[in-house]
Amino acid sequence: MTAKKNNYGVVGKPQPKLDAPLKVTGRSEFTDDIRLPGMLHGKIIRSPIAHGKIRSINTSRAEKLPGVKAVITHQDTNGLMVGPDQMLLCDETVKYIGDEVAAVAAIDEDTAFEAAELIRVKYEPLPALLTLEQAAKKDAPILHQYYEDNFADERTTVLGDPDAAFEKADHIRIDEFTSSPNHNCFAELHIAVADFSRPDKLTIWSPTQSAILFQKALAQNLGLSEGNVRVCNLNTGGAFSGRVSAKPHHYIAALLSRKAGRPVKIMADADEEFIICRSAGRNKYRIKTGFMNDGTVKVIEADFLHDCGAYVEEQFVLLLLAECALHLLYKIEALRYQGRLVYTNNIPYVYHHGGGMSPVQFALGQHLDRIAQDLKMDPVKLQLKNAVDKGYTTINDTHYASCGLTECINKVSRKSGWKRKYNRLPPYCGIGIGCGVMSSGGKGMWMHDTSAAFIKLSEDGKASLFTGLPDMGQGSHTTMAMIAAETLGIATDDITVVSGDTDIAPFDVGAFSQRGTFTTGNAVKNACLDARKQLAKTASEKFNVKTSQLVFFGRKVFPKGKPDKAISFEDIVFDTLHCAEGRFVMGRGFYNSPTDKPALSYSFGAQIAEVEVDPETGEVKLLKMTVAHDVGRAINPLAVEGQLDGQVFSGIGQILYEECCMENGQILNPSRLDYALPRPFEIPQIERIIVETHDPYGPFGAKEVAEGPMVTTAQTIANAVSNAIGHPIDEIPITPERILKLLKQKKQELS
Amino acid sequence: MKQILSLNVNGDDYQIAAYPSQTLLDVLRDDLRLTGTKRSCGTGTCGMCTVIIDKKAVLSCLTLAVECEGKTITTIEGISNPDGTLHPIQKSFVENGAVQCGFCSPGIIMTAKALLDKNPSPDEKDIKEALAGTICRCTGHFKTVEAVQKAVPNIHKESGNDSEEK
């Protein structure tokens, strides 16, 4: 892949991550690398049963153990709630295997483990609701006593006139799908280091996607002002939608630290990680679509049920995103949608990578694939027939100022040789297409969607960029440095990114909802334009031209058309700083999408998968993925490729391998050995196609490439497997067992 | 009771007092403060703590420190060139975008180094097989495998192997 030529100095040129040299030499600091004076180790005592009453908690033996510095139970939390329905430490009932009951802090890990073993909790087991079908029943026992049923949250949307649209449709198709619980599997396990030894100020070190949301929640719940909660997010070892909000262990580390008067570190064990993480639960999707003889999709009706486990955290996002998936991608006339969260006695389930969109788009993609088969129509043609395009306004008034969906479909189709292959492959070989859409930003999901940035210029013409946007590996800091360098007309390595500390960094909601490049990118650009304006004053006096006539490029400043007159950027900064008034240059920028929709810009993608299925073992061999994504503009093509790779990998995992096997509320495979992530030899050949549509709102035309590609991968592979075995797929992940079951089913259907 | 151990880590000799139950990972990170070797699962399932002991890639979380008495241990901090420039594998990881969150990078790089030390001309299958024990969620193994492949000719260059071919 080579970058398209443009007139930019920095944007569009592959740039290795600025922090990569630190990372490959082991010098990057992660939270577990911190060692504070007097630091203690914390351990959480969790419920071993899925549902029950707490009869008694006896901590006396643990407290007497030498080396134990603090033990906390609900009596120490002052009724602290970490969600609308979740006490930090349980007082009367426990609601899932892993529910937090008590915690200890001791001088070392071994003592903390020993003390945890000495805490005696007596439970009286209660019947547990372990499936969403059980819990959704009308006469099911109520899990949260103040509610009337087990529906934790609900979202209903009607757009257009669905009944009339179904009436007019030539055909109606209904399908049902199920997805299984799975887990985000970060490289760096959950960890928190808290120093609350000063009662008026909490400092917490933790990997996160949003230091601001952590700060706000901790301040509110612990009765501190936001400025007195300092969140330090050093490097973050992967996040994948799983590190947006503060979790119980953050609060527990803080309270243990306050009680002991010393810093406390809590790090998950390998199996505890599967509980702490709040990954995805079981979901059920029912989709009904009205469509015409020519393949035009007219109307969709969807009923989605999500197991949200014992407590509600940020699962409402699932309901919102699922709705978006239904009406943003195709030119439908009407929609009726109902999404519901169901309480069960499982782990509080939020979502896996992709904000829960991977299984939703699997369901929708498989459903559309079947519509194509009903009509004996080529699925690529069906996708093209229904694809939204530039200038289109959807039924919920979302307008597309840029859209490369058709280009993506055409490119993957051509590059993969679709026409030669579709329905012409040998038995048990298959090919499938999938399409996806993603917003660049997440307005409405959180209270606001604002990013701010500062840029500070040094006397030597270099700059420090202050941002609150975390870099979890996606390369956001490098991208921000490139945007800053391009705007100021200097080089990327002239920029030092300062981040990871709420005491210093400006406000930024965080790195989720695909908002980094678009929203923070715009804020960074604005900050640099502000700095440039301050420099332009000096330069325009020197050249005796209007400020609008100045060009900042290649570490130089010159009047338009007169590069021979250039003065170095460094000299302009120096002269500004040392002018009569001593004008120190610091640019300030901010951005909040001026829309009431989730975002102003949307990215689109299409992928084609080629597979081979072994009918004897049920194993799927993924041969090739052809992946196109409309990113608006690739600021850093190297990082865009990395994003495509990682998301395709994640999609492969979610559709073919990853499943938390559950029994009575217990995960049976809480280990990275038994929880099957794809390994290097399961990775297919990949062809990456970057489509650039130059979005008018994005910084230099850029849109997201954060989770857009991954929502397309799962459905694409499912469609290819379905094509290979000649049978629809209703349940994911498509494990060998499930394939063999489908093949057997197919045999029975045929006979 | 702690025991006194003699370890050679990255060319330096250390004498360390360690409990028999202490893992090499704990000693490297907590006693020697060589935190480049990452602690993740602690149960040998992820490969992130991989170091090289006497030329073999080993999971330091499953290795007791006492087993390493008298052995030569190399960690991620010890593979750059003496002048501070990066080892060809490290350089290739940086240039080819094989580093994202970077938490698994030390383990993967050490695994790759052990492979290339033993087999200077691995094919793609050899590399994938060697890296099979390391988990990398961010890159999905695409660019890590590619980066190891691309490092091969540079390793030959540095060790002077390519001049023999001429």
Quick take:
Chain A has 19 helices and 31 strands. Chain A is α+β, with helices and mostly antiparallel strands and 751 residues long.
Would you kindly provide a written description of the structure presented here, covering whatever features stand out?
The complex is a heterodimer of chains A (751) and B (166). Chain A folds into three domains: 20-28 and 450-591, 2-Layer Sandwich (Aldehyde Oxidoreductase, domain 4); 37-127 and 187-239 and 243-276, Aldehyde Oxidoreductase, domain 3 (Alpha-Beta Complex), CATH 3.90.1170; 283-438 and 597-750, Aldehyde Oxidoreductase, domain 4, CATH 3.30.365. In chain A, 29% of the residues lie in helices and 25% in strands. Chain A contains 19 helices and 31 strands. In chain A, strands 3-7-1-14-11-12-13 form a seven-stranded mixed beta sheet, sandwiched between helices. Chain A is globular. The model of chain A has no long low-confidence stretch (mean pLDDT 96). By secondary structure, chain B is an alpha+beta fold. Chain B has two domains: 3-76, Roll (Ubiquitin-like (UB roll)), CATH 3.10.20.30; 88-159, DNA polymerase, domain 1 (Orthogonal Bundle), CATH 1.10.150. Chain B has helices at residues 24-31, 88-95, 105-118, 124-130, 142-159, 161-165; strands at 3-9, 12-18, 50-53, 56-59, 72-74. The longest helix of chain B is centred in the last third of the chain and has 18 residues, at 142-159. Chains A and B meet through helix 1 and helix 17 of A and helix 2, helix 3, helix 4 and helix 5 of B.
